[in-house]
Amino acid sequence: MKRHWYDYLWIASAAYLALGFFNILFAWLGLLCFFIPLIIAVVRGNKAYCNRYCGRGQLFGLLGGGLGLSRKKDIPRWMKSKGFRYGFLLFFFAMFFLMLWNTWLVFSGVRNLSETVKLLWTFRLPWHWAYHGGTSAWVAQFSFGFYGVMLTSTVLGLITMILFKPRSWCVYCPMGTMTQLICRARHRGEEM
């Protein structure tokens, strides 16, 4: 089977996590994982990002399938349901907007910079070694918050990868759900 350049995007996902461990400002690169799938869905009307370019999905496939870290069980039906996927998307949005709110509070001077990463939206992990100054406090606050979102989604993906099939995270991934909604809306608009 011929390998393509995009078959190696898992390296970018692994590098992103590693870079954020050493310098939190690299967290801003994660915005690419937010905007590129949405742009592809809007412009092309498909989920090419999820199916071909998602480095995180590739990383889970490699770890779970290639390295055998997955039990390779089917994901439960309730996790595939619209209710769970849309509920998780709403929850994810709420956590994302809370992160933006905290960034705004630091920007407006109401709150001081918190050099912590929130894992699973609950556990505050000290991450002070990864920030070396040299930028506005709100820029750093966004970095800590966004890295927490990305790390949390990676941990959830790893857990579902181990318990179920390697790319089980893709079933309820908020970006996948959003791109699916965009594609449906776009195709409905074309039918009219």
UniProtKB/TrEMBL annotation:
What top-level branch of life does the organism fall under? Bacteria
Residues that span the membrane, as ranges:
20-43, 86-107, 144-164
Quote the Pfam families the UniProt record gives.
Answer: Fer4_5
Where the record annotates domain 4Fe-4S ferredoxin-type, the positions are 26-69, 150-186
Q: Which UniProt keywords apply?
A: Membrane, Transmembrane, Transmembrane helix
InterPro entries referenced in this protein's UniProt entry, alphabetically: 4Fe4S_Fe-S-bd
What protein name does the entry list? 4Fe-4S binding protein
